Amino acid sequence: MLRRHGINRLPQNMKSLAKRNSYQLYEKQVPGHHVQIDVKFPKFIDKGRKPIKRFQYTAIDDATRIRVLKAYKFHNQRSSIDFVNLVIQKMPFRIKVIRTDNGHEFQPQFHWHLQDLGISHIYIKPRTPRLNGKLERSRIYDQEFYQPLEYKGDVDLEKKVTIWEIFYNFQRLHGAHAGKPPHEALRDKLPV
């Protein structure tokens, strides 16, 4: 009957609204239950005006938003394995699941390495970056870190990334936790 009267479809301006609300935002309650990992591709210009590309690996815990960051020269499985070892070392809780996209840097060697460590590895569906949404929606690096950053070499970049990570995890106020930094949110989520 709706089809016969031509009202079985949403108006054109309502289609995007219906699609936008078709998925649900979530937050895990247990730290370490889901950690998302992704790679950002910052580009710099060195002193000789030559373009330089680096690969910043980022891990974020779904429950607390605690981040681990590191910049690499190479974008491969070896860098991914090194990074996940760093994440395990730096996260103040046990990691149960790591979620990544289907990039070449997260393929068999990386997957098997996680299995050997007793960590489950989940790939998101292709072309669905919203499934790694805590990282994909994050514009913080572009606005607060990379825009004012002046590239003076890899050692300097590594030092600045470490300083930013400490600032983000311990001092920067976060909207997802009523204005608390991620480490304060972690204290709230731990059992007393």
The whole-number mean of residue pLDDT values reads 84
The beta-strand count equals 7
Shape: globular
Poorly predicted ranges (pLDDT <50, ≥5 residues)? none
What is the terminal separation in angstroms? 59 Å
> How many distinct helices?
7
What structural class should be given to the helix and strand makeup? Answer: alpha/beta
- Note the run of SSEs as H and E: HEEEEEHEHEHHHH
Helix content: 25-40%
What would your notes on this structure say?
With 192 residues, the protein is an alpha/beta fold. The chain is 35% helix and 17% strand. The protein has helices at 12-20, 77-90, 108-116, 133-136, 140-146, 154-170, 182-189, and strands at 35-40, 43-45, 51-53, 55-61, 67-72, 97-100, 120-123. α2 (77-90) runs parallel beside α3 (108-116). The longest helix is centred in the last third of the chain and has 17 residues, at 154-170. The protein is globular and about 70 Å long. The protein starts with 11 loop residues before the first helix and ends with a helix.
What's the gist of this structure?
By secondary structure, the protein is of the alpha/beta class. It has seven helices and seven strands, in the order H-E-E-E-E-E-H-E-H-E-H-H-H-H.
Key attributes of the depicted protein:
alpha/beta; 5-stranded mixed sheet; 35% helix; 7 strands
